[in-house]
């Protein structure tokens, strides 16, 4: 039996952006997009890439991040980076801050109730639940505030599962709600470009994904 061929997410994104570009030429305005983001380095290339096509609002919702000082540092880096990043300035990109409540993360993922998830390497079930939890929040916010599109920066990381991220995003769509922008932002040297921008702007790059378990795994290894 033949295995189904994996989707080329870059080709899908190229097709979507070509359609959006035609619509901009016809209508004279860019559609709105809510971009869930976890940090400034991961946001950098995505903002550079998408700003010609969308009016972007960056949505910082990450109660999974441990400890709170790390959460605050990543948020602060976004707050200072966006106003001095040329594509952000030209496109008037805004930042939306949210409340920090780690209990939201633990309730949504039930990691405390399932100890076997706590020692998983990245890309496992724990991460899948965390992707979904944050993307659901982003989608709900996008719908409540009449955004036309939403997506996340998560796929830019080589340690994140783009297939799972896109599957979750598509599953959240419903008639009349925001559309999910399918992408794998690490393609087209996206991750490498994010490293270049990080060096150019002297951005803080964290050494672990964010949660207390990835923090512990980093320390063990």
Describe the structure.
By secondary structure, the chain is of the alpha/beta class. The protein has one domain: HUPs (Rossmann fold, 3-Layer(aba) Sandwich). It is 51% helix and 10% strand. A five-stranded parallel β-sheet has the order 3-2-1-4-5, with helices on both faces. α7 runs parallel beside α8. The mean pLDDT is 95.
Summarize the structure.
The chain has 221 residues and is α/β, with parallel strands linked by helices. It is built from ten helices and five strands, in the order αβαβααβαααβαβαα.
Largest sheet: 5 strands, parallel
Model regions low in confidence, pLDDT < 50 over at least 5 residues: none
Our count of domains comes out at 1
CATH topology: Rossmann fold
CATH architecture: 3-Layer(aba) Sandwich
Q: What is the overall shape?
A: globular
Portion of residues in beta strands equals: 5-15%
The CATH homologous superfamily:
HUPs
Radius of gyration: 17 Å
By oligomeric state, this entry counts as: single chain
Q: What's the CATH first level?
A: Alpha Beta
* SSE class: alpha/beta
Which sequence of strands runs across the widest sheet? 3-2-1-4-5
SSE pattern, N- to C-terminal: HEHEHHEHHHEHEHH
The helix count comes to 10
Ends apart, CA distance between termini: 40 Å
């Amino acid at each position: 039996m033949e295995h189904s061929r994996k989707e080329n997410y870059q080709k899908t994104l190229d097709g979507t952006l070509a359609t959006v570009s035609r619509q901009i030429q016809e209508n004279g305005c860019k559609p709105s997009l809510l971009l869930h983001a976890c940090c400034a380095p991961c946001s950098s290339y995505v903002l550079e890439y998408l700003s010609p096509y969308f009016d972007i609002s960056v949505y910082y919702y990450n109660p999974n991040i441990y400890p709170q000082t790390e959460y605050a540092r990543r948020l602060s880096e976004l707050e200072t980076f966006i106003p001095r990043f040329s594509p952000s300035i030209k496109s008037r990109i805004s930042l939306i801050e949210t409340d920090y409540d780690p209990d939201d993360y633990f309730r949504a993922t039930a990691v405390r109730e399932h100890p076997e998830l706590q020692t998983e390497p990245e890309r496992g079930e724990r991460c899948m639940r965390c992707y979904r939890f944050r993307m659901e929040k982003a989608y709900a916010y996008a719908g409540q505030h009449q955004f036309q599109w939403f997506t996340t920066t998560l796929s830019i990381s080589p340690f994140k599962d783009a297939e799972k991220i896109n599957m979750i995003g598509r599953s959240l769509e419903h008639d009349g709600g925001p559309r999910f922008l399918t992408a794998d932002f690490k393609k087209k040297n996206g991750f490498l470009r994010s490293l270049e921008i990080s060096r150019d702007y002297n951005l803080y790059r964290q050494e672990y994904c964010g949660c207390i378990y990835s923090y512990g795994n980093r320390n063990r290894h």
